[in-house]
Amino acid sequence: MHSVNKGLGKIEVKLKWDPSPWSRPPHHLDIIATTYSADAPYGRPVYVVHHDSRSPDGTINMPRHSETGLGFGYVEVMVLELDRLAPSFARVVVGVAIHQESGPKTFGDLSNAGVQVVEGYQKLLEDDFTQVAGSTATTVAEFTRDASGTWGFHAMIRGSDSDPAVFTAEMGSTRQP
């Protein structure tokens, strides 16, 4: 547990989607987190965390990953331990990207897709990607640390048509894609 003065602590970002029909290539989505330094909170990410990586200090990792959406409920989970993140970090942005290897896919092409951001039992965000149906990627959430060291949350559903590599570089920018 964290005290009210400490702000957010351990966050889970959860992702769900239905598998593609058996005769079609699988839908593969990924949760991506980018971290930004206190010196350049809107500059280049210090590091990026996704399905086959974790933060160097272990504060951001993915204990559950799916390449197909197969399973019940939320099939992909990223954990962010903001309360353990070094003071040199002031911002973390989380997004979701759809792999495009088997042809163009947007959130509108998926069924029962959704994201949930929680701290313990408190739901901070729940979204079904309807507002970004024509996009191939979207930011989801922004976590910022204030001068007192308290982490706050901002919902940030913002669609993008960039491929996952380009999206990773753009997702923390201040401009709207």
Plain-language structure description:
This protein is mainly β and 177 residues long. Helices cover 4% and strands 40% of the residues. The protein contains one helix and ten strands. The protein has one helix spanning 164-170; strands spanning 10-16, 29-37, 47-49, 60-64, 76-81, 89-98, 114-119, 122-127, 137-145, 151-160. The strands form two sheets. The protein has a five-stranded antiparallel beta sheet with strand order 4-5-1-7-8, with no helix packed on it. It has a five-stranded antiparallel beta sheet with strand order 3-2-6-9-10, with helices on one face. Strand 7 (114-119) and strand 8 (122-127) form a beta hairpin. The longest helix has 7 residues, at 164-170. The radius of gyration is 16 Å and the shape is globular. The protein starts with 9 loop residues before the first strand and ends in a 7-residue tail after the last helix. The relative contact order is 0.24. The model has no long low-confidence stretch (mean pLDDT 90).
Strand composition percent? 35-45%
Helix content: under 10%
Low-pLDDT residue intervals, each spanning 5 or more residues:
none
Report the structural category: mainly beta
